[in-house]
Amino acid sequence: MNTVSPIGANPSAARLALREQAAAFESLFMGVLMRTMRQGVHENAKFHGGRGEAIFGGLMDNELADRMGGRGGLGIAEMVEKAIGSRLDLQM
Count of alpha carbons within 13 Å of 39, Cβ hemisphere only? Predict the structure, then answer.
């Protein structure tokens, strides 16, 4: 079970945890964005991958979202990290 320790106890650990969670949030957001974009694409019988595309398309979206989020993607993680860090008095 995860326990929450006071921020003052170890500020560098708090900064690292915040950075990781902000990156995870950006990856989650990117995944939702990718799935929504995929739903907007009309399937063409000649170029549609059938059942395999339906099954593995979501997995590909998640992997792409994780990779884009981990590399800074849209910059959402950095914005979240700065906003929350300032509220918690963490020097980012």
Answer: 6
Three-class SS of 18-76: HHHHHHHHHHHHHHHHHHHHHHCCCCCCCCCCHHHHHHHHHHHHHHHHHHHHHCCCCCH
| Model confidence at 63: pLDDT above 60 | yes
**Structure tokens given for 53:** 């595309």
pLDDT digits (tens, 9 = 90+) for 17-58: 999 999 999 999 998 988 888 887 777 766 667 777 778 888
Predicted TM-score (pTM) of the model is 0.71
Structure tokens at 69: 């989020």
Place of tokens 């979501």: 58
> Cα 84 vs. chain centroid, distance in angstroms?
16
Question: What's the sign of the alpha-carbon dihedral 79, 19, 84, 8?
Answer: negative
- Angle at CA 31, nearest 5°, toward 48 and 28? 165
